[in-house]
Amino acid sequence: MNNIAEQLSAAYQNISENCAKLSRDPAGVRLIAVSKTKPVEAVASAYQAGQRQFGENYPQELVAKAEQLAALSDIQWHFIGPLQSNKTRLVAEHASWVHSVDRLKIAERLAAQRPASLQPLQVLLQINISAEDSKAGISADMLPELAQAVAELPGLTLRGLMAIPAPGDSKRAFAAMQKLSENLQQQHPGATELSMGMSDDWPLALQYGATMIRLGTAIFGARTYERNE
Length: 229
Ligand SMILES: *Cc1c(COP(=O)(O)O)cnc(C)c1O
Fold this sequence. Notes:
The structure is a single chain. The chain is an alpha/beta fold. It has helices spanning 2-21, 40-48, 59-68, 88-94, 104-113, 143-151, 170-187, 202-207, 217-220; strands at residues 30-34, 53-56, 76-79, 97-101, 121-127, 156-163, 193-195, 212-215. An 8-stranded parallel β-sheet has the order 7-6-5-4-3-2-1-8. β4 (97-101), α5 (104-113) and β5 (121-127) form a beta-alpha-beta unit. α1 (2-21) crosses α2 (40-48), α3 packs parallel to α4 (88-94) and α4 packs across α5. The two termini are 28 Å apart. The structure holds pyridoxal-5'-phosphate (PLP). Residues 34, 36, 57, 80-81, 164, 198-200, 214-218 line the site of pyridoxal-5'-phosphate.
């Protein structure tokens, strides 16, 4: 698992170099280590190497890891996968961030289920920026209304936007997301986060203002299986 520490250190170095080229402050870029399908030991190794922000796609897997690693109390779990209403409680009770809110009903459930003893859940709205039939996320024209409704809910804080562009569409999609983010911030000045960029396209995402990049393969190596829920 030493490999994980090396990959993390290489990724942070690489982010710093990219930020220097773009005259961006690397402190404004959060690396989310996407640990889905990887064993809890892999998360622990990354934690030992200093990583605190982890991304998971499946509610039960997030909860299982959060419970096993409960002693590491400063871990922040980011839920980044599709969220069905019968799984919102798991996320409301264990995650610090949710990147994939795309329906008011889901946001309302998260708000109602967020324990009062925890900080508000930090929420990003997912945009289906490549307009793919198969993908989660709202269309850009629905954003103002959903953002306003989410901003009014207790227990949640609207923090920004997330997208997963279709293959080959990253550049156009990232540019479009940057514009949407700028517009959103006029109404919601606190919604400054832009979660976009994965292992194969994150340097491009940084050019278009990404503040959170979600790296799985680059940190933990290839996944041997993908789950579907
Ligand atoms: C799996 C996943 C990632 C990480 O993908 P890599 O290509 O392995 O970096 C990032 N974001 C989401 C939403 C994912 O599902």
